[in-house]
Each structure stands twice: as structure tokens, then as C-alpha cells.
Amino acid sequence: MNEITMKTTVDRLLLQALREDMPDEDVTTNAILRERTPGSVDLICKQKGILAGLPVFARVFTLLDETTQVECFFHDGDPVEPGDLLARVHGDLRVLLSGERVALNYLQRMSGIATYTSQAAALLKGSKTRLLDTRKTTPNCRIFEKYAVRVGGGGNHRTNLSDGVLLKDNHIGAAGGIAQAVERARAYAPFVRKIEVEVETLDQVSQALQAGADIIMLDNMSLEQMRQALAMIGGRAQTECSGNVTRENIEGLKQLGVDYISSGALTHSAPILDISMKHMRPSAQKDGCV
Length: 290
Fold this sequence. Notes:
By secondary structure, this protein is of the alpha/beta class. The protein is built from ten helices and twelve strands. The protein has helices spanning 3-21, 27-32, 54-64, 93-122, 142-151, 169-175, 178-188, 202-211, 223-233, 265-268; strands at residues 38-45, 49-50, 69-72, 79-80, 85-92, 130-132, 165-167, 195-199, 215-219, 238-242, 260-262, 275-282. The strands form three sheets. Strands 6-11-10-9-8-7 form a six-stranded parallel β-sheet. Strands 3-5-1-12 form a four-stranded antiparallel β-sheet, covered by helices on one side. It has a two-stranded antiparallel sheet with strand order 2-4. Strand 8 (195-199), helix 8 (202-211) and strand 9 form a beta-alpha-beta unit. The relative contact order is 0.17.
């Protein structure tokens, strides 16, 4: 994440998370440390995976105290192993203690998503198919989770509803049919926006083609239905398959030759990566942070 994104978007979300965890004060830390106490703590990996979110982790502490220094020994996208020393944080121990859980929550969650995505993307290696995420993200955490997908080797579908036109079943129902929905979308959306239509039957595939859809999403179809659908499409539109795609079944879709596979599991089902802050200790220095 670049510095502009950090300042314009990420900082606000991190501050909200800090306020949620510390609406008034950190009563435990304030009880044991009554004044500024310089020191450091180690960030230790406890599980094999792909690291993502280290700049976010560091930002939590510098938002609490800009003099905090985070010494990083790894970077986002790096593979990590149990026992790896990922970083060392230097600063006021009160800041390190108060920011610990929020910082780890982001880092563990984002690294878990990057790890899961990397494992799923590896199963598509050698094919033309690109792995995408969805909008099935944690509220107010989408920017972090979609970033983690990219770190893990996946791509982003729409970031939000303003990004593109995706006519799903309820949109089609509201418009009165695929042809009507596509016609209205063409008339309203900027010409640079592609029109994607979600279909569940071969008849709907035919309707989407006739309506001139740019992308056809094959949703919750069987492998045989998708093969028939792709034969019907014949390269006249880009193709995406979706619906309950997980790391466990994605390899079976590789043979289809679709352009994209979208999986909500990348963000809603990835377990966290186990990472801890350990060995917190006061510094020998008493006049300031390292």
C-alpha cells in the first residue's frame, strides 16, 4: 500500500479499530506503566505461510506514537516459516502494549488471506485462468482483504459497486429479463465499463449472448453445464465461473479454460496465520525510544 492510500483511507480505518479496542484508555497498561518507558518487542511467525499486511501492522503503532520505529526483516509477499523473526518494534512500551491486538488482527487476517490465495492460485498454474476475489469481505476491511488477495497472487474483481456493471439474478428480475437489463446498463453506464451478466442455465447463456454481454458469469453450474456453455459462447464473450469455489475444488475447474474463476472463500474462509508479539522488554535507554 502506498503512502497516499495509507493517509487517505487506511489511517481512518485503523483509528476506528483502535477506538473500538480502546474507547477510553488501556486500563491494564496504564495501571502497570505510569510514564513513558522505552523498549522493544519481537514479531514472531508461528506458522508457515505468505506474509501480508506488515505496513499496516507498523502503521498502527506510528498512529499511536509517531516516534515508534518498526524494524522489518521480511516484506509483504515473502514466504515465512515458524520461528522467523519478522520484525522488531521499538518505542514506548505503553504504545506497544495498547496497539498489539489491533496490529496483530490485521496482520494475521491479511497473511491468512494471502496464504490461502497463494495455495489456490498455485492450483491454476499452467492455465490461462485467473483467480479473482469477490465482494464477500468483512465490513470496513475490504481494502485490507483485497490487498492481501493481490499479495497472494490473486486478482480483484469489483472493489465496490461503483467499479463495474454486474447484472445478477435479482437485477435481471428487477429489470424484467436479461435483454432489458443489458439494454438499460448500456444506456446508463460509461462506454468504458464492461457489462457482465450472471447466468445459471444454458437458456440464460443464449440470452446473454444475444444481448451482447461482454462477460458471462457461469454461476453454480455443473462441470458438464459449463462445458456446454463455453461451447455456446465460443469466444464471443469473456467467461467467469463462480459459486462455492474453494481451495479444495478449484483444481477441477482448471480444465474448463474459463478466463476467470471468482471465489468468495479467498476472503470469507481463509484462516488467520498464527503470528505473535513476544519478548517485550524495557530498553536500557531511559531518555527516549530507539
